Amino acid sequence: MADLIHRPRRLRRNEAIRSLVRETRLAAEDFVLPFFACPGEGVRKEISSMPGVHNLSVDEIAKEAAAAYELGIKSVILFGLPEAKDEHASGAFDENGIVQRAVRAIRQAAPGLLIMTDTCLCEYTSHGHCGMIRDGEVVNDESLALLARTAVSQAAAGADVVAPSAMMDGQVGAIREALDAEGFEQVAIMAYAVKYASGFYGPFREAADSSPAFGDRRAYQMDAANAREAIREAELDYIEGADILMVKPAVVYLDILKMVREEFDVPVAAYHVSGEYAMIKAAAQKGWLDEERVMLETLTSIKRAGADIILTYYAREAVRALKS
């Protein structure tokens, strides 16, 4: 074996040399921590299918956001559970809505934190769909005005980034036009550009109480079998003015994430969704795997595939692990 010149194992001998030549690195700045805002005061209700994740009242979110910022997390995204729902999702764009109040509370508690808001209607509609309903169908163009109104109200409350997730055609353009018309030119749009109709959203729907009352979302979210369509969806959002393009879910769509990263020169985000989080948690609780190791391996795979930004319920645990 004297002629064995190339020995890749030389660069794997110990942690010092492995870290020296490591190609992909996670950092606290990569992560966005989701919060679920709910009515009440002093409320901390753990979500049964997402151990460690809670529905939090606005006062508790402010505390948690400040603590996350102190830990090193730079960004959060807010979802809302309103006190009441109706057919027109009026809670989504109410200036005193649950997300709007949470934005203001976080801004006061952690002024340096970047605040993103999920811009959708499903959490606020009595029927649980992401747009308006007519004759049993989710109608696209009528929904755009409400999505734009929601984005403006979130920006007025102090959101830095609005994140339209309804998968309505033209939503990014409608929101950009509305934000600019109201003087919010500096508010960025992170588009859920490639959002698949996935079975991995189940725990989120418990957390956000957003399951459809009838049917499903396959008529507007993407078919899991389609890849080329993802580029078309992302391109449309890019043309309409999206500042950041998101792929959701992350882990089971790493091929799609890589395609989007290679095609576009704007920042790309990926959502490590509730079901992907819950699978690791459940297996770890059974003692079947090393939770921290698998968490970091999973998040590294998302970044390696091309994500600049990772939305994950593991944000706090990941930052702590990276510091240790």
Strand content: 15-25%
Separation of termini? 40 Å
CATH superfamily: Aldolase class I
Number of helical segments? 12
SSE arrangement, N to C = HEEEHEHHEEEHEHEHHEHEHHEH
Mean pLDDT: 93
Query: Quick one: biggest sheet?
Result: 8 strands, parallel, barrel
Task: Give the name of the CATH architecture.
Answer: Alpha-Beta Barrel
Structural class: alpha/beta
Low-confidence stretches: none
What strand order characterises the main sheet?
1-4-5-8-9-10-11-12
Share of residues in helices: 40-55%
Tally of DSSP β-strands: 12
CATH class: Alpha Beta
Number of domains: 1
State Rg. Answer: 20 Å
What overall geometry do the principal axes of the alpha carbons give? Answer: globular
CATH topology: TIM Barrel
